[in-house]
Write a structure and sequence with these properties.
It comes from Amycolatopsis albidoflavus. InterPro entries: ArsR-like_HTH, GAF-like_dom_sf, HTH_MetabolicPath_Reg, Tscrpt_reg_IclR_C, Tscrpt_reg_IclR_N, WH-like_DNA-bd_sf, WH_DNA-bd_sf. This is IclR family transcriptional regulator. Pfam families: HTH_IclR, IclR_C. There is one protein chain. The chain is 48% helix and 18% strand. With 260 residues, the chain is α+β, with helices and mostly antiparallel strands. It has a 6-stranded antiparallel β-sheet, with helices on both faces. It has a two-stranded antiparallel ribbon with strand order 1-2. The chain is elongated and about 60 Å long.
């Protein structure tokens, strides 16, 4: 497809992406989609039809609601296999973080009610903790999950928390909704999350968000290690490094997304 002089092809792509983001929150009717993305119904219908033909959108014939299609899950599979562009661009930064902390570095993204590890650089120590690339956990578990929740649009977070099963992974996993809400508020204010044995007994996690231009989490960047090596001073040191690297990657991602 050739771009027209007035940039209509670029606008069509932008609008299609807006539709996918809208459907990422929950299934919507044609009218709801049009309202969310501020387009006319005919324009919205044409875009939805194209996305449906490409497998990116499906429609429930009974209710008429549109939802994300198998093509989107294929993209998610690519991300969970470590094929995310921003992760490629951040490889040097992640390696530097692993080297300066000497602990495992992991990147997680949200997948529905779960979080999935999409990139991991193991600690050089013989005794270490790892998340496991492709492994998913409940999004309420550990510093990575709490970061993804804390830096999520409020309305989306509340919809998720409304019926999120707070199943325990360890005795330290947060299973009380109000306790979780309080921690998420603190994490959002501090810009950093900690966990002590919430996902794996004896493991300590320090996590900062990799954010988009709006400040919402695209991913969670964590340093994970055994509590025997991660005392208060070491955690404070790791926190500084995680913040700096997460901010650097976020700036790169935000800058790239603003390029026309």
């Amino acid at each position: 497809m050739t771009e027209t002089p007035d940039g209509s092809t670029v606008r069509a792509v932008s609008r299609a992406i807006d539709i996918l983001f809208a459907l990422g929150h929950n299934p919507l009717t044609l009218g709801d989609v049009a309202e969310v993305v501020s387009l006319s119904k005919p324009t919205t219908y044409r875009l939805l039809s194209t996305l449906r033909a490409k497998g990116m959108v499906v429609q429930d014939q009974a209710s008429g609601h549109y939802g994300l299609g198998p093509g989107c899950f294929h993209l998610m599979s690519s991300i969970s296999n470590g094929n995310a562009g921003f992760i490629f661009e951040a490889t040097d930064a992640l390696e530097q973080l692993r080297d300066v902390t000497a602990e495992t570095v992991a990147v997680h993204v949200r997948a529905g009610r779960s979080r999935i590890c999409v990139k991991e650089l193991p600690s050089p120590h013989l005794i270490r903790y790892i998340a496991g690339v492709g492994v998913s956990e409940g999004i309420h578990t550990g510093s990575a999950g709490k970061t993804l929740l804390a830096f999520m649009p409020e309305a989306e977070r509340e919809r998720l928390l409304k019926d999120l099963p707070l199943d325990p992974t360890t005795p330290n996993t947060i299973t009380d909704l109000e306790t979780l809400r309080a921690q998420l508020k603190s994490i959002a204010a501090a810009g950093i999350a900690h966990s002590h044995g919430e996902r794996a007994v004896g493991a300590v996690g320090v996590t900062a968000p990799i954010t988009d231009a709006n400040g919402f989490a695209l991913a969670a960047l964590s340093v994970i290690g055994p509590e025997g090596r991660l005392g208060k001073e070491k955690i404070a040191e790791i926190e500084r490094h995680v913040r700096e690297v997460a901010a650097r990657i976020s700036a790169t991602v935000s800058g790239a997304s603003e390029v026309d």
